[in-house]
Amino acid sequence: MAINKNSNVYIITYTVVMVVIVGALLATLATWLKPKQDANVLNEQKVSIMKAFGEADASFDEVVTMGRIVEGEFVEVDKSDAAAVQGVFDLLGNRKALGEATDNLPIFKFEKDGVEKYVLPLVGKGLWGDIWGYVSLYVADAKLTISGIVMDHAGETPGLGAEIATPHVQGAFAGKVLFNEAGEFAVRMQKGGAQNEHQVDAITGGTKTCDGVNAMLESSIGKYESFLNTLTEAVAEATTAVEQPVEENNNVEPENKEE
Question: Structure pTM?
């Protein structure tokens, strides 16, 4: 008996079979590619962190100390503990969870030429969607200072808000001081142009994205403030100890003279 390929039964059966076959193939392919995709995501995270440090050519695994900020203190993550390491990067990849986290926060440390730098993750909202990145901080002249920043976005306007992902905009943040003399967070993209050591020129036509960057910086870095304060306090104490004058000992008995 010949099959009527024009019948509804044949068309429906053929469609269902093809959907099942294609679905099975896609599921198999996705399962096969997932380890490679995860490895690519992990590598991208490490590269971005090293760019924020300003050490794009260095190996993350060789020079970076991973940690978590727990109740304001740096707790090192053992790199031999695969589950702990994966937990840090899983949190970095989950921007919603990272944005909501208030403790046990991921942080990365790198030391070169006696200077310690720390990279913190950033998450926020731009005009059209998520914005995120990493910022590197260190203490210079007893002030918390930005050494580098890397930012990206999900869908900001090309030529306008999307410029936050360019080296030109990101490079302008280097050397900016986080807090003003009143102790207030002061780093921001300033409409009309930077006017002091805290500000960066805003992007013309990208006001809403710049506002999102400002909010992202303040909220993300603010979570680490208690830990960051310990860095400046340590530098201040060390500086005071060095500058403390040595008291003369007036109680030294004179040398015995011959009679």
Answer: 0.82
